[in-house]
Design goal:
303 residues; mainly beta; Lipocalin; eight-stranded antiparallel beta barrel
Length: 303
């Protein structure tokens, strides 16, 4: 009996250590060659199930998947990188510096051929107080059939002719944008100090199966706002001041009934004010599985 109790105690202790993996979360920073040249932004996520996800920092789309292990302050792992018809196994290994709060990993094709290094900091970790949304079988019967986006323009209008594109899709990967909701190349003027509301139409490849409430609760939502000054009267100098973004979502089943709790959602996006003053600029707005806004991301340094 004493031996059994000791075994159980050891097992519980091991499980507790595993649950407290401090590396779980999203890491962002810079990748370079081993000499520190050719810097580029990079992002990856270390999941609690030891899955490694290398992502596109701008879009948050998953580029490659692999696995990793942790031993003390050391992290190591591997993933498959596919370039055309060539598939390579990339290994990585590094250590966490508690003083600088940075993780530095070298990476390459094998242990003898190193190509570069990542120097990253942890940007987000799972919240201990926010369990994953509870998903029911009924959630798969309700679909995102209506989405209204309201944009509040500030002290600088969007010129007529300058195209604006709005996309809404589950936060799984970029391929889902083609089957979500999509307003393409809206070129009318948005006057300063005015609100504008649009029903975002379905993308050409919209399917109900790719827009279920269950998917949005599991993965979250992406609202992409893409603006380009090309086509307007001042393609190189035009700017547009976006002050506020509002989002209304309707999850409806096939007989027209709204979901009893989440059928009609009104969401105000904090931190969505932005000056679009580059030739092409993208604002990504994210919602989690509870439809709560997450920090937005900006491409091309729009401000």
């Amino acid at each position: 009996m004493k031996k059994l109790l000791i075994t159980i105690s050891c097992l519980l202790a091991c499980l507790a250590i595993k649950a407290q993996n401090p590396f779980v979360g999203i890491w962002e920073g810079v990748q370079t060659n081993m000499q520190g040249y050719y810097p580029a932004d990079m992002q990856f996520e270390l999941k609690a199930n030891n899955e490694f996800l290398l992502k596109d920092k701008a879009t948050n789309a998953v580029k490659y998947r692999g696995n990793y292990t942790v031993l003390g302050n050391a992290v190591s792992g591997k993933y498959l990188e596919i370039n055309g018809s060539t598939t390579s196994t990339i290994t990585f290994a590094g250590t966490f510096d508690a003083a600088t709060k940075k993780l530095t990993c070298t990476y390459g094709y094998d242990t003898s051929t190193r190509l570069g290094k990542w120097t990253v900091s942890q940007k987000s970790a799972p919240s201990a107080t926010s369990p994953p949304p509870y998903i029911t079988f009924e959630d798969s019967k309700y679909y995102l059939q209506v989405a209204k986006v309201t944009l509040g323009t500030g002290n600088d209008n969007k010129d007529k002719g300058a195209p604006l594109t709005i996309k809404i899709f589950p936060r799984i990967d970029q391929t889902y944008q083609f089957g979500g909701l999509w307003l393409d190349d809206y070129t009318n003027e948005l006057k300063k100090w005015e609100w504008w509301t649009v029903d975002v139409p379905r993308a050409p490849n919209y399917t109900e199966a790719r827009n279920t409430l269950a998917l949005y609760k599991k993965y979250g939502l992406v609202l992409e706002i893409l603006y380009s000054s090309f086509g307007g009267p001042f393609p190189l100098t035009d700017a547009w001041k976006l002050d506020k973004v509002l989002l209304d979502l309707r999850f409806i089943n096939y007989i027209g009934q709204w979901h009893p709790q989440l059928g009609n959602l009104h969401i105000e996006i904090p931190g969505s004010g932005l000056v679009f003053n580059k030739k092409t600029c993208v604002l990504w707005i994210y919602l989690d599985g509870y439809f709560k806004p997450l920090p937005p991301k900006i491409e091309n340094n729009c401000n």
